[in-house]
Amino acid sequence: MDNCPSVESFPAGQFPTTLKRLQVSNCHILSSLAANLPSLRNLEYLEVSGCPNLECFPLGPWRSLSLRCIKIEDSENLKSLPDGFYNLTNLKELEIRFCPNLKSLPKQGLPPSLRSLSITECKNLSSPDGWKLHKLKSLKFLTLGGFLGFVSFSSDYLLPHSITELRLSHLPDLESLSEALQVLTSLERLMILQCENLKALPDSGLPATLSTLKIWNCPLLTPRCEKDRGEDWHKIADIPTLNITYWRTLVVLNSSFMLQNHVRLISHSGILYPLLFPAIGSNAEFILGIPASSDNWEISCDS
Question: What Gene3D superfamilies does UniProt report for this protein, alphabetically (predicted)?
Fold first, then answer.
């Protein structure tokens, strides 16, 4: 169900019991989902996006043994997730984006069956140290970003060693990674994006299993990783794939404008496509970025 601006609730308050896939998007005055949502045993996929009036999900035990994926985004008044999420024993993927008033995750924690977890741009959410991530023994992919006041990972609740890919983005107060990385003995890919106060890599180095390291827009860390010269270069020199770049912001553009007008960057060497960062606080805009060391660029578009 998409773009239904006058829908406040669902007729009769019930979804069909045979429902397998539910997508609700851009329903701006929708205040509640059907009360029987937690009891839909055949539901496999749930997505809610662009529903700013929705404050919570239905209460009650979540009984679906089929639900594999939940995506929640752009729901600015959503304040909590149901404790029943913990009982979704076959849930593999959970993604939560741009929910600025979400304050906490389920008290019991997240389903131990999760393989992929992404939580970004939820600025009022409690610190990841309280999410009980150490209990997610099957977790492979973890993306965290857009939290304020998060300085370091706690030594009491370390990340699960099963993680193979870790992405950290827009964590302006993050200063240390040491505690987070010391147990990640399966880590293969590490991406660190826009962490302005991250000062250095761990003294003990990075996991030997690491094959890809990307560091973008981390002004304190980038110089330390400069080839053959940086203080941290010896910690990363043997990693097969390195991408370490500091980008300066050129302009912020609306995404629809970019697509409709074929916006591109032009240098003296020809047409080059820009790196696009989601603009903080909105998924409708993008930051057009170019390398900080580059000059003689201009914007070109068809309009």
Answer: Ribonuclease Inhibitor
Q: Between the CA of residue 22 and those of 34, 67, 88, 211, 252, what are the distances in Å?
A: 11, 11, 16, 37, 33
CB atoms within 10 A of CB 134: 17
Could you give the residue ranges of the DSSP H alpha helices within 153-300? 178-181, 233-236, 255-261
Q: Which domain holds residue 64?
A: 1-126
pTM value is 0.81
CB distance 47 to 27 below 8 Å: no
Structure tokens at 117: 């977890």
Count, residues in the chain? 303
Final residue belonging to a domain, choices 69, 95, 126: 126
Q: How far is CA 220 from the centre of its chain?
A: 22
State how far the Cα of 43 lies from the Cα of 99, in Å rounded to an integer.
23
Question: Strands 247-254 and 241-245, how do they pair?
Answer: unpaired
Residue 280 lies in a domain: yes
Report pLDDT digits (tens) over 214-268: 999 899 999 999 999 999 999 999 999 999 987 655 444 444 444 444 444 444 4
